[in-house]
Amino acid sequence: MIVTIDGVAASGKSSVSSGVAQALGVPYVSSGLLYRAATLLGLEADLDLRGAPGLLKLLGTHPVRLEPLAGGNRVWQGERDLTDDLHSTRVDRGVSVVAALPEVREWVDAQLRALPEPFVAEGRDMGTNVFPHAPHKFYLTASARIRAERRARERPEDVPAIEADLQRRDELDTVQSAPAPDALVIDTGPLDLQGVIDTILTRLR
Ligand SMILES: Nc1ncnc2c1ncn2[C@@H]1O[C@H](COP(=O)(O)OP(=O)(O)OP(=O)(O)O)[C@@H](O)[C@H]1O
Ligand SMILES: Nc1ccn([C@@H]2O[C@H](COP(=O)(O)O)[C@@H](O)[C@H]2O)c(=O)n1
């Protein structure tokens, strides 16, 4: 059984997916971490992020592995744990360019589809493209200002700067970010984290 939780940037996908997955006793899978890992490695190798051949060669010679756990995902490149380096502003600003490359999307999708069920999968196109046959689909939204205020609690930048970055990322991610027609769309603005998790669990039960 697969539950998909898609949504715009910083709408709460990973926090909510983690809470839902823990309540269900299954792992959750953060697809964005794989796009972030490809971006980080491209930046570190000083590659042009718009060039798929260079990135794919790098990913082929230095394979990246996603470790899905209920409490939080980790991403490994060999023995190196990349996870703590994946949420920098630098990666945030480059990731949508990398995610627009069809070859990189195929690389991510293949890894996700190889994972053993059951799990909760979060991202942008989990319910539309990667797992269209999933029986339970959700899509999280909230205004850019609310999302920026939440994110400002975990980043050094101020709210307007974060809001501008989120809006830019939303725009660059538009193509792959449409909600599945059979997804329940949840405006998380008026809800706290547990409220969103409970809304989803109620629907699942
Ligand atoms: N309903 C909510 N109420 C208050 N804070 C929330 C809510 N949902 C998420 N948050 C907080 O908002 C921040 C962003 O959440 P999270 O990282 O889960 O979003 P995301 O969609 O996975 O982000 P990204 O797209 O950048 O990976 C976190 O600090 C989280 O605790
Ligand atoms: N299914 C997905 C997931 C992510 N992306 C791209 O990765 C970026 C980071 O994802 P977060 O979930 O950590 O925000 C995101 O901005 C997208 O560019 C994607 O395309 N498809």
Automatic annotation (TrEMBL):
Q: Which residues form the Cytidylate kinase domain?
A: 3-203
The species this protein was found in: Deinococcus indicus
List the protein's name: Cytidylate kinase
* UniProt KW Nucleotide-binding keyword: yes
Which EC numbers does the record give? Answer: 2.7.4.25
- State the family it belongs to: Belongs to the cytidylate kinase family. Type 1 subfamily.
Q: A Gene Ontology biological process annotation?
A: pyrimidine nucleotide metabolic process
**One GO MF term:** CMP kinase activity
Q: Which InterPro entries does this chain map to?
A: Cytidylate_kin, Cytidylate_kinase_dom, P-loop_NTPase
Q: Which SUPFAM superfamilies match?
A: P-loop containing nucleoside triphosphate hydrolases
